Amino acid sequence: MNETAHSYLDDFDTGKTTSKKVVARCLERISERNPSLHALSEVLAEAALAQADDIDRRKSAGQKTGRLAGLPVIIKDLVDVEGAHCKAGLDFLKDYIAEQDAELVRRLRAEDAVILGMSETDSGAFLVRTPQTTHPVAPDHVVGGSSGGSGAAMAAGFGLAAIGTDTGGSIRIPAACCSVVGFKPTYGRVPLDGVRPLAWSLDHAGPLVNSAADIAPVQAVLDPQFDNTGSAKSGPFTLGYDPDYYADAVPEVRQAFESALKLAESLGHEIRKVSLPSPESVLAFHMINLTAEAGAYHFEKFPDQWDNYPEGVRQALEIAKREPAYRYVQAERARQGAREQVAKAFEEVDFLMTPTLPILPPKKTDEMAETAKGPVPVLQAHISYTCLFDQTGHPALSLPVYLNEQGLGASLQIAGPLDRDKAVVDLAVALEEARGPLQG
To answer: pTM of the full predicted structure?
Structure first.
């Protein structure tokens, strides 16, 4: 495993390391590997080193430093960072330079996090491959998306935390593809001021990190009330799962998920079956309300750029063009039904457990993904288990639980009740500790 944020912060506090050392180490890795991986679209080396020097100077002088002092953080390039190119993966925005930081970046800087650079994004955050980025461990396979650059950067050791956004799974998907940890908070808990939207009612921002224990220090800065979102009880907990939900999971994913359930059971948690909305039903309305909201933004903001969008983005926006308004209303009614079904499940259990993806990361050349029920488009396979919790707004975390000999893995998705973000993270930390190091 790469370095962890929590171990660095402990070492910084005790004087075992400095901000300059960790930032320089990350920049060295970026210099060596980013030319081939293309995980970062821009590196802010000079500013990062200057900030690291200032943090170390203040600490040496006995002055106060922030909770994330010196922590090297990478930002998805659809989140505004003052003075940086923030093109959201869209070539026609390549010259856009943010004039001020997004609110979440301001919060990170206020606690002395060091912004190393901008990570590559799948075009407009619509898709799930981030094709311009190469997987650090398995170059023939996708890194996931749309926060693929953030996932790859973490797997390559370019930083100790990265920020992604998640509208249909875009934090959790690359986390699973790159075998790192990704957390989507409860909808609305992290501000999106200065974040280019995909779909306003579905967009979330959150961290990708190397260990579940790294989520809390970062999330507590992004969400000042995070520490108040723990569980109402100390456990053991009741963990719900729906066998029908992951019926199309390939054998490696199924076995990894069921082993994770057994591990949780060995820790004293009760495992109980629940009923969740079927992924097929959620996908049906997800593709209507997401594309309608995306169209509302893009058609107004960039009316003359149609020919400059990639084909996959145009296909998504075509849905918004052709679907009548009543279909959006129907999708919203179906969404409410899914919310009610998930709420009912949380009346029976404390947390919900699913695999993050039904498949292992596909190859870059694959157009279709082979599931246990047959081939489906890669986009469908990637979002089928994750988009439910964007639609309902519940906090959800992706935790690696299996690696094969190629270094490709399967991950567990843990979802919790609304505004129980810390509870989800705490459970993931306990499971990660019990799991131990993953061996490929």
So the answer is: 0.98
